[in-house]
Design a protein that fits this description.
This protein is of the alpha+beta class and 394 residues long. A hairpin with a 2-residue loop joins strand 14 and strand 15. The strands form four sheets. Strands 4-5-6-3-7-10-9-8 form an eight-stranded mixed sheet, with helices on one face. Strands 14-15-16-13-17-20-19-18 form an eight-stranded mixed sheet. A two-stranded antiparallel ribbon has the order 1-2. The protein is globular. The protein is built from seven helices and 20 strands. Bound molecules: fe (ii) ion.
């Protein structure tokens, strides 16, 4: 049999690898400006602080935040105290600690682990993460960015409180026996043990609730509700494209030629792209920080009005808006870029093209000058579609 024609049963569907990435779920950054990063995430961007990241001896080395019901959507960690291997990656500019995609079953985690090993991919670890409760396998891409496949992210509900530390057990750091118990059984067991299920971590920004956002008073005039896309500089575009498509299974949406360089845009679901691979040679040409391979970190807000308000709010609160070539954010017409600190830049946007069954991409629109955004946009058939927030705004 031709090895390339081998198929695997994933939930009853024959697929070319034994797992299917269904969405970009969360991202982690190594960031030495951790205090500023925390203030910017929590106060300015309004991400909810759900837990702290601790070293093995219990010291706080970072923080988990979320913008939805996932336990974490964005993590930041101080690289100073990490292990020598990961510190060496950070020193080489790999500040993306994790690029994490959801799969739909626990079995796919184990199977992805075996698949990665069979393809010669370097594994970081496999097991279950707490805080967060998700089961995961982490592998390194050709540059040393860690790609995670996770299943079973802890969901944070109306009370805003994470799972209590007293429930931190069941932490296998190997391929796990299947099947595992359901989380509902873990919760029942915790109740029987007398664990206070409301005693977990949960912290909110102390800013006043003074901005009317769609009829609700919030602490800032917008609501971030999704992370991604992330664009990364890569040393060998062909090697990275092979890794992210043939091995990890992302779909290629589009290629863009920019100043003679090929750039590749990839998706996990119907979004135009959740990851873009940009040749490292462009980093200096674009005058971006030589300290990181993270080109941009996307944060989606819900409406165009919120995007305009966010742009003004962040500028008024000291974040520096920076230019970004429109050709390099295909699928997103209106975007505003800010420096989060002296390394990482964020991209705020409200709408991304969705890709249908035939994979067709919309022809590029004329770039919109950053200082010439209209007050209102014309409606399209896709306006506000596919970007639904289940719960209240805050
Ligand atoms: Fe993760």
């Amino acid at each position: 049999m031709n090895p390339s024609s081998k198929t695997y049963d994933v939930g009853g569907v024959a697929m070319p690898r034994p797992f299917k990435l269904v969405r970009l779920g969360h991202l982690g950054l190594w960031d030495p400006a951790i205090a500023r990063c925390q203030t910017n995430f929590i106060d300015l961007l309004g991400l909810r602080h759900t837990d702290n990241v601790r070293t093995p001896n219990g010291d706080v080395m970072g923080f988990f935040t979320t913008c939805n019901t996932d336990h974490h959507a964005l993590i930041a960690m101080d690289p100073t105290d990490t292990d020598p291997v990961r510190k060496s990656y950070f020193d080489a500019g790999i500040t993306l600690n994790q690029l994490s995609f959801q799969v739909n079953s626990l079995r796919e985690i184990n199977d992805a682990h075996s698949f990665f090993i069979s393809k010669g991919v370097q594994i970081s670890r496999i097991g279950r993460d707490l805080p967060g409760s998700n089961w995961a396998v982490y592998a390194f891409d050709p540059d040393g960015h860690r790609v995670e496949l996770f299943y079973g992210m802890e969901q944070i509900g109306w009370s805003g409180v994470s799972k209590p530390e007293a429930m931190y057990h069941r932490l296998p750091q190997t391929e796990f026996q299947l099947p595992q118990r359901a989380e509902a059984e873990e919760v029942r067991e915790a109740r029987e043990q007398g664990i206070d299920l409301g005693s977990g971590f949960g912290s909110l920004s102390q800013l006043p609730y003074i901005y009317d956002v769609g009829g609700v008073l919030l602490q800032r005039p917008f609501k971030v509700s999704r992370v991604g896309p992330v664009r990364i500089f890569v040393a060998d575009l062909d090697a990275s494209e092979h890794f992210y498509t043939d091995i990890v299974g992302l779909e290629k949406t589009q290629e863009v030629m920019y100043q003679g360089h090929r750039c590749v845009y990839l998706r996990a679901g119907s979004e135009h792209h959740s990851v873009a691979l940009i040749p490292l040679a462009l980093r200096a040409q674009l005058e971006m920080s030589p300290k990181t391979t993270m080109m941009s970190l996307g944060l989606q807000v819900q409406t165009y009005a919120q995007l305009r308000a966010a742009r003004a709010f962040l500028a008024a609160n000291g974040l520096v808006e920076v230019p970004f070539p429109a050709e390099l954010h295909p699928g997103v017409q209106y975007a505003a870029h800010f420096m989060l600190d002296d390394m990482h830049r964020i991209e705020l946007y409200f709408d991304m093209d969705q890709i249908g069954w035939n994979g067709e991409v919309r022809p590029p629109a004329a770039p919109v000058p950053g200082n010439a955004w209209p007050e209102t946009l014309p409606a399209t058939a896709a306006t506000f579609a596919g970007h639904i927030r289940q719960g209240p705004l805050g």
